Every structure is written in structure tokens, then in C-alpha cells.
Amino acid sequence: MKNVENGQKIGELIPDKSYITQHNTTLNLRAIRKRKVLFFISLHCVRCIDLLPEIKKVREPNTEILLFSSADQEDLQELDHFFQQKISIVSLSREQAKLDFQVYDYPFCVVADTSHCIYSKGAAYNAVDVMELIHHRGGSKFLKMFGKRI
Fold it and tell me: Structure pTM?
């Protein structure tokens, strides 16, 4: 399940950048004061499409789910309808995903704590994989306990 070579390093902070959502609103990742689960998908990837209904199953308190897709505006609207407007969806090219998040292989999931620190990441193909990433042992609590980022 895990592909630790993909994505930013554990202990790094998610980018302090703003993105435009499917509703044409600005979303700054660091403004979200909840745990964040970031999904990176392409609609040209069968495993990514298979993951979409699994994302709907993920329900965690104090957790914001965000979907980054290389989709165009029309596809974003379809995804918004599919998710019943319950999650933020951002159109992000593969090139921009590499630059901002060091993500080059899809589907991929990054989990950051309320302090925006990445504590888990990996390829996710179903809701069980996602829940394992969210509840990853030795995550951000370990980092905070020792007061440093690895």
C-alpha cells in the first residue's frame, strides 16, 4: 500500500498555498484547522476512478477531505455532484502536483495533522487503506512528543 518515495517527506509541512475549488472559491490549506486528507487522482487512471466511491466511505471527526485532480472544469462539476458537494475539489495538473507536493504517482493520499504536518502518506486503493493512513501509528504525536520534525 505505501509508496514512501512519492510525496513530501513525513514531518514536512503541507504547502502554504491557495488553490481554486470547484465552486471558484479560494482554499488555503493552512487555513484549515482540522486534520487534512489530501487525495491525488487522475480521471485517466482506472485505480483512481475505482477509489472515488471508497473516498465517500471515509468519515472521521475533525477531518477535512480534499481531492486534487487533473480534471477539467466540466469533470470537476461531475465530481462535485458525485460527492454531493461535501468535499473541496481542486483542479491541479500533474506538473503542479509534482512541484507543490512532490506527488508523481496516482492514486496517492497524504494525511496532515491540525498543525499542517504530514504524518502519513501512501497509495490508497480503498477505504481501508485510507483509514490505515489516517490512523498510522507513530505519526504526528510522536513528532510533537520529541519536539522536532524528521
Answer: 0.87
Evaluate whether 71 touches 52 at the Cβ level (below 8 Å).
Answer: no
* Identity of the residue numbered 11: G
CATH of domain 31-146: 3.40.30.10
Strands 88-91 and 26-28: unpaired
Count of Cβ atoms closer than 10 Å to residue 9 Cβ? 11
What are the backbone dihedrals phi and psi of residue 112, each rounded to the nearest 5 degrees, phi first?
A: -120, 145
CA proximity to 116, closest of 8, 11, 13, 39: 13
- The pLDDT mean for the chain works out to 90
Q: With the C-alpha atoms ordered 31, 142, 37, 42, is the resulting torsion angle positive or negative?
A: positive
Query: Which residues lie across from 21 on neighbouring strands?
Result: 90
Residue type present at position 93: S
State the residue for C-alpha cell 475549488.
Answer: 21
DSSP assignment of 95-145, as one string? HHHHHHH---SSSEEEEE-TTSBEEEEE---SHHHHHHHHT-TTSHHHHHH
pLDDT tens string 61-99: 999 999 999 999 899 999 999 999 999 999 999 999 999
Neighbours of 63 (CB within 10 A): 15
By the 8 A CB rule, do 122 and 133 touch? yes
